[in-house]
Design a protein that fits this description.
Blueprint: H1 29-33, H2 44-47, H3 50-75, H4 84-111, H5 114-129, H6 139-161, E1 166-167, E2 179-180, H7 192-245
Antiparallel strand pairs: 1-2
Length: 247
């Protein structure tokens, strides 16, 4: 019997898919999820329940509607035109309208699942570039976002209390001053602090998403340009070496 030698051809195993891109929102993903504006799981196929989907949509509608009504109330204030009170009311009204528009942006981004799709695209690009490309520390950017968001939200919360807390009239010298909060239409029947807080949060979230998307896309763009310049440099060196060999 003749021995048969088996030859095994080397088989190239596919390279593992390495997802190096961190989540675009990073630690702020939880803030978006609990803001009431996240509709990424509002579909019944994702939430698993009609009741859960309807509750998520209703909460989002109520938050956006309150911000829109508050912006209209501020811009339609009865203050005399061209006075300081009128200017302040218009400025706050436009800022509240900006918060309402920011909330709509966050709702649209989460409803269309824009961020997960962009995450997949960036991960694919980094898998093609290799594990050493595009690594950037976002810790400093996260700190600046937290500081900016805290200042913006604090400004809105304090503005909700401005001119709302008042000292009651002193009937006689034996009665102390009382501090109260008017519950009427101008304060949206006591909902003013919550509406202003929602405006500050929605504005902060929209700016956070915009800044982080820009940072991630700009990182990949810079990495691509760097890889392209390195490739051109190596190509020029190879051509120069080839020409020197024939001189």
């Amino acid at each position: 019997m003749s021995a048969v030698t088996a030859f095994e051809l080397p088989v190239k195993t596919p390279l593992p898919q390495i997802t190096m891109t961190p989540k675009i929102l990073g630690p702020f993903e939880l803030a978006v999820r609990w803001s009431g504006l996240d509709l990424s799981n509002s579909a019944v196929t994702r939430s698993g329940s009609w009741v859960k989907s309807i509750c998520m949509i209703l909460v989002c509608i109520v938050i956006c509607l309150l911000m829109f009504l508050k912006s209209l109330m501020l811009m339609m204030d009865s203050a005399k035109p061209m006075t300081l009170e009128w200017v302040i009311s218009c400025v706050w009204g436009f800022m509240a309208l900006h918060g309402f528009a920011s909330a709509l942006c966050v709702v649209s981004w989460t409803r269309s699942r824009f961020l997960p799709q962009l995450q997949t695209t960036l991960s694919t690009l980094q898998n093609q570039q290799g594990p050493s490309c595009g690594l950037t520390d976002f810790a400093s950017l996260y700190r600046r976002i937290v500081i900016g968001a805290a200042l913006l939200i604090t400004t809105w919360v304090l503005s909700s209390m401005k001119d709302r807390l008042f000292e009651g009239f002193q009937a006689n010298s034996s009665e102390p001053f009382s501090i109260g909060y008017p519950v009427n239409l101008s304060t949206m029947y006591g909902l003013d602090p919550f509406v202003y807080l929602a405006v500050g949060i929605s504005s902060s979230l929209a700016m956070t998403v915009y800044v982080l998307v820009y940072a991630h896309v700009n990182r990949e763009w810079a990495t691509f340009n760097e890889d392209l310049s390195n490739t051109l440099r190596l190509h020029q060196l190879a051509v120069r070496s080839f020409s020197l060999d024939f001189q």
